[in-house]
Amino acid sequence: MFYTIDNRMVNDFFEDLDSIFTQSGRRPIKPESKNYKTDSDDNGVTLTMEIPGYNKDMVSIDVSGDDLIIEGKPHTGDTEGFIQKFSLGDKLDSGNIDATIVDGILTLSVSYREETKPRKLKVKVK
Fold it and tell me: How far apart are CA 84 and CA 61, in angstroms?
């Protein structure tokens, strides 16, 4: 099928693409990302993400290799859901992650690996 702007078939093109993903059992990933911010301290990194309308049963958090993957399942307020991927790198401990959702705000804390945590040394005077 040939798509042109003049006969408004551009929208049909994107609908056809969506249907290809739907028929294959995959759903398209929403292109826009959720609003988030990161903060770090001596213990690790804290990610705060706005996910209005989501609760703990609608969000999954997985680690695959060095990637942290946050996925929100589709629901009535957000029919497409979302997927957000972050790289943990080699300083963060993928086995020490804590997450909570309160009032549509996901707070996720990842500790530094013990060997990469900042250390304070006592200075000895001789």
Answer: 10
